[in-house]
Amino acid sequence: MSETNIPEEVLAAASDVETKESEIIESAAVQAGVEASSAESAPAEPEAKTEPVAEPEAEPVAEPVEPEAAPAAEPEAEPVAETETEEPEAQAGEKAESLADKSLAELSDMFRSLKESAESMMRSKEAENIKSAFYKLLGKLKGENPDVANSLSNPFEAVEENFKAVYADYKKERAEFNRQQEAKREENLLTKKAIIDELKALVEKDEDASASFPAFRELQNRWREAGSVPVNAYRDINDTYQFYVEKFYDMVKISRDLRDLDFQKNLEAKEKFCEAAEKLAENENVVNAFHELQKLHEQWKEFGPVAKEKRDDIWNRFKAATAVINKRSQAHFEGQKEEQLANLSAKQALCEQVEEIAAKEINSSSEWNELSRKIQDLQE
C-alpha cells in the first residue's frame, strides 16, 4: 500500500488545530461560567451609528464591491442590516487579492485574530472574505489530493471543524451584536416619534415666533442626538420630520430676520465642514481621510438649508473637496493592488524555479547539497 502524500500546509493547519485544541476547550469552559454568572444581566448596548439624513443635492460616494459568493460547503452567513461606512471599489478588491496567497493555517489565524479584535463587529465583510478564501482553498486542496481527503486520517476534517467552530462563535457574537443594535434603533425610533409629536404641537400652537424658536431649536438638537433608526422606518420618519420643519417656517411665520439668522448659522457650520474636507484632501493618510470624509457628510446632512443664493456655491465647494479625496483614495488602493500583483508574479517565478529544481534527478549527496543550497538561496 503506497504512502499518502499530505500537503504541507494541511499538516501545518492540522498541527495548529492540535496545539490550540486545549485553548478552545478551556475558553469554552470559561465562557460557560461567564454565561452562568451573568444570565440575569442584560448585555450593554453598543452605541448606534449616526444615520445619514437625505440631502437635496446628489453627493459623490464611492461604492463598495460585493465579495464573491462562498462555496456551498461553507457555514451559512447571517444577513446583516446595518449602515457601515462603505469602502472604495479598489479597496474591496485589494482585500480580496491579499488573501489569494494565504495558506489554510494563515487564513484560520487571520480569522481568529479578527474575531478577537475590538472592532470585530465592524469588520463583517472582511470576515466573510476570509471565510470564502478558506473554503475556496480547502476545496482546491481536496480536489488535488483525493486520496488524502478520503483517508481515515483525513487531516482536512480537523482543519475544517476547527474553522467552523471559530466561525460559529463569531456568528453567535455578531447575531447578539445585531440584536442589540436593532433594539437600540427601535428605541431611537420611539424617541424620534415623540420629538415629531412635540414639533407638530409647536407648529399648531398660535404663538409669537420669537417665543417658539428656542423650543424649535431644542427639538432640532434632540433629533440630531437621537441616533439611527431601523432601515425600513428611516425614510418615513425623516420625511415626516422635514415636513413639520418646513411647516414650522411656513405656519409659525418666523420673521425674516430670524430665518436669515438660521440660514447664516447653517452656512457658517457648512463652511467649517468645507474647510475640514479641504484639509483632509491634503492628509497623507488617504485611508483615514476617506473615513473622516464620510463622517463630515453625515454631519453636513444634519444641518438645515442656507440662503438660496448661496446653496449651490457652498455645496459645490464641499463636493469639490470630496472629489479630490475620493480620487486620491481610489489611486492609493489601485497602486496597492498593482504592487501586490507584482509581488504575486515574483513569487510565482520563484515557485517555478523551485519546481524545476525539485524535478531534477539526484544521483549523489553533492548534487543534493547543491540543489538544497539553491533552494535556500531562493527562499532568502
Report on this model:
This protein is mainly alpha-helical and 380 residues long. The chain has a domain at 8-34 and 44-179. 72% of the residues lie in helices and 0% in strands.
Key structural traits:
12 helices, 72% helix, 0% strand, mainly alpha, 380 residues
In short:
The chain is an all-alpha fold. The chain has helices spanning 8-37, 89-97, 104-116, 124-144, 146-149, 155-204, 209-225, 231-251, 256-280, 286-302, 308-358, 365-379. It has twelve helices and no strands.
Number of H/I helices? 12
State the shape.
elongated
> What is the residue-averaged pLDDT?
72
Overall strand count: 0
Q: What portion of the residues fall into strands of 2 or more residues? A: under 5%
Secondary-structure element pattern, one letter each: HHHHHHHHHHHH
Topology:
Elements: H1 8-37, H2 89-97, H3 104-116, H4 124-144, H5 146-149, H6 155-204, H7 209-225, H8 231-251, H9 256-280, H10 286-302, H11 308-358, H12 365-379
